[in-house]
Amino acid sequence: MSNDLIRPFLITRDAAGNVRLSVRDVRYNSQGYPLVTAVMQDALFETVAAARSYAREHFQAIAGQYELKTS
User: Fold this and answer.
1) Mean pLDDT, to the nearest integer, of 55-61?
2) What residue segments make up the domains of the chain, in order of their start?
3) pLDDT by residue (tens digit) across 9-56?
4) Looking at residue 5, what is its pLDDT?
5) How many helices (H) and strands (E) does the chain have?
6) What value does the CA radius of gyration of the chain take, rounded to a whole number of Å?
7) What does DSSP assign to residue 64?
8) DSSP state of 18
C-alpha cells in the first residue's frame, strides 16, 4: 500500500515560464493504491501566489493542499 500523500492541487511552471494549476482527484483501488486523475486549468498565472489565490477562490483550497513541482 502506498503511504504517499497526494495533494489535490499541483502547481507547475510550463516551458513558456507561465505558472499552471492542475486539480487532482484521488481514488483508491481495492488494494489501497491511489488512482490519480489530474485536470489542468486553462488559466495562466504570473506567480505561484496567483495560482494559489485562484484555487482558493474557485475550489475552496486551504493551506497545505498545494504541491509545487519544479523543472
Assistant:
1) 96
2) 9-69
3) 999 998 999 999 999 999 999 999 999 999 999 999 999 999 999 999
4) 77
5) 1, 4
6) 13
7) T
8) -
The pTM for the full model equals: 0.85
Nearest to 10 by CA among 70, 46, 18: 70
Least confident of 2-6, 18-22, 52-56, 58-62: 2-6
Q: Residue 41 and residue 11: Cα distance in Å, rounded?
A: 10
Q: Are the C-beta atoms of 11 and 39 separated by less than 8 Å?
A: no
Q: Which residue has the cell 495560482?
A: 51
3-state helix, strand, coil in the chain (%, to 5): 15, 40, 45
Query: H or E stretch including 35?
Result: strand 34-40
Q: Is 24 exposed, middle or buried (0-12, 13-18, 19+ CB in 10 A)?
A: middle
Grid cell, residue 42, equals 486553462
